[in-house]
Specification:
The complex is a heterodimer of chains A (196) and B (181). Chain A contains six helices and nine strands. Chain A is α+β, with helices and mostly antiparallel strands and 196 residues long. Chain A has a seven-stranded mixed beta sheet. Chain A is globular. In chain B, strand 3, helix 4 and strand 4 form a beta-alpha-beta unit. In chain B, helix 2 runs parallel beside helix 5 and helix 3 packs across helix 6. Classes of the chains: A alpha+beta (196), B alpha/beta (181). The interface between A and B is medium-sized, with 35 and 35 residues.
């Protein structure tokens, strides 16, 4: 019986694995206000763009995030010029990884020149609602609010000069132009979300 | 000893099929810790073959990285599992997802954890590797996959687990295999 219970714990812990919102779905939890690095309270609805909305789950500590961070800043800063709103959400519990604290978020946003809201999901509830599992993980919605791209930033975190597939950049361009997304779902390695 | 002989047999088998690897999976002797276990580069397709070719009742694949906190936290439980169960019962396949230039760090971690048998380090692009391992895997680490005797994936989860949880998953995979004759 103990084994069954232990396995049940594993399965419950894994329950988020296959539950990410599907292509075509509307963004959940859009009205949840989250604290930005500037101290403002911002929701996904607040940043919604005329042509689309980019929601990215990220953090400070994950080496995969660090590898992509310059590109996160570039793409996130460029998207609003294309009519696409941007919000980057840290769902991690800093009690588990100190580097994921609000103060480090502020430093990181300053160092990297983030011009978009970098916010704290202080219950991890927004990440749960999306069915996000890792950082970084991208959800891109079109002008009608439908999910049109889910996955990775590109196909090479560590070596930007060797990127062959610019998944998110291509998706942003397509959304801005009202065109179909060339590759709508991709995967990459990342850090599990440190759930609160 | 049984375990040691078993893993050596697996190593010999692996050397054969990894012969086609694009790059030498072994580090240069100058950078290799003397007590570090072998770390072999593996693509997703090679990992699939490694699982299929195993002679053990249950195969547990754990994909981890040195920088991944929950991976490091659960590692002692995996090592304990491999010590407590004979090779005939469990084949523990550890796959590091560290970047190639972090291989030495991965080897040192394995040595510190008391791993003496050969393990693996991911080679190739993330998407190809993830797709080959399982469509259920989002790419988050750690990831654990448990295969029964017929090499059906019977348990899969992302995130850390305890010794009891790993043990229960292995026992259940073995029980399911027995139930199916």
């Amino acid at each position: 019986m103990r084994k069954v219970l232990a396995l049940a714990v594993v399965l419950v812990a894994a329950a988020g694995v296959a539950l990410a919102i599907e292509l075509g779905a509307q963004a959940p939890a859009t009205d949840v206000k989250m604290k930005d690095v500037s101290g403002r309270m911002v929701s996904i609805a607040d940043v919604r763009g005329e042509r689309g909305t980019l929601v990215m789950f990220s953090c400070n500590a994950c080496p995969w995030v660090k590898a992509w961070e310059t590109r996160i800043a570039e793409l996130g800063n460029r998207a609003p010029e294309m009519g696409i709103g941007v919000i980057v959400i840290n769902p991690n519990d800093p009690a588990k990884v100190a580097e994921d604290s609000y103060e480090v978020m502020q430093e990181r946003a300053r160092e990297r020149g983030f011009k978009f809201p970098y916010v704290v999901d202080d219950t991890s509830g927004v990440a749960r609602a999306f069915g996000a599992t890792r950082t970084p993980e991208v959800f891109l919605f079109d002008a009608a609010g439908k999910l049109v791209y889910h996955g990775a930033i590109d196909d090479n975190a560590r070596e930007p000069e060797k990127v062959e597939k610019h998944y998110l950049a291509d998706a942003l361009r397509a959304v801005a132009a009202g065109q179909p997304i060339p590759v709508a779902e991709t995967k990459a390695l990342g850090c599990t979300i440190k759930w609160r | 000893m049984v375990r040691r002989v078993g893993v050596l047999a697996v190593l010999v088998a692996m050397m054969g099929f990894l012969g086609g690897c694009k790059r030498d999976p072994m580090p240069s002797t100058s950078s290799m810790s003397s007590d570090a276990p072998p770390l072999l580069a593996v693509t997703g397709a090679q990992l699939e073959e490694r699982v299929r070719a195993s002679q053990s009742e249950v195969v547990l694949v754990n994909i981890w990285a040195t920088w991944c906190l929950p991976c490091r936290e659960e590692f002692p439980a995996l090592v304990r599992l491999s010590r407590e169960l004979p090779q005939e019962r469990l084949d523990l396949v550890l796959v590091s997802a560290d970047f190639p230039d972090q291989a030495e760090m991965a080897r040192q971690f394995l040595a510190e954890q008391g791993v003496t048998f050969p393990s693996y380090i991911k080679e190739g692009k993330d998407q190809e590797f993830i797709d080959a391992v399982s469509e259920r895997w989002s790419g988050a680490l750690p990831a654990t996959l448990v295969y029964d005797r017929s090499r059906r994936l019977v348990r899969f989860w992302e995130g850390g687990a305890s010794f009891e949880e790993f043990r229960a998953a292995v026992d259940m995979a073995a029980g399911e295999a027995a139930g199916k004759g």
